[in-house]
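Need tokens for this chain, all 122 residues.
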Amino acid sequence: EVQLVESGGGLVQTGGSLRLSCAASGFTFDDDYAIGWFRQAPGKERAGISCFESNDGDTLYADSVKGRFTMSTDNAKNTVYLEMNSLNPQATGVYYCAATRGFACYSRMDHWGNGTLVTVSS
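Here are the structure tokens for all 122 residues:
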């Protein structure tokens, strides 16, 4: 059984920072995997924010967050993080952690957490 549990969401002012965490169980960061973050803003479809692919060691970022968000993984703790800086109201939404084995980022994510809500006040 694979379980992903997000934490770290909350209310933050414009310009502030948050760090989200995704704790994985039943899933090891060994090889041929991808794990990342998605956001569903109010009234919008869920979209990829950041994702790490083990096959090439590449971390992908959506254009809207490049230079402001940083994703990292801690293999020993089976935990992935998303450091979010310079937040603005457009970053408001539910953030989901998602992972897959054997597929590339964003193409097919087999495992999903329940999400954590981030609200950025103006």
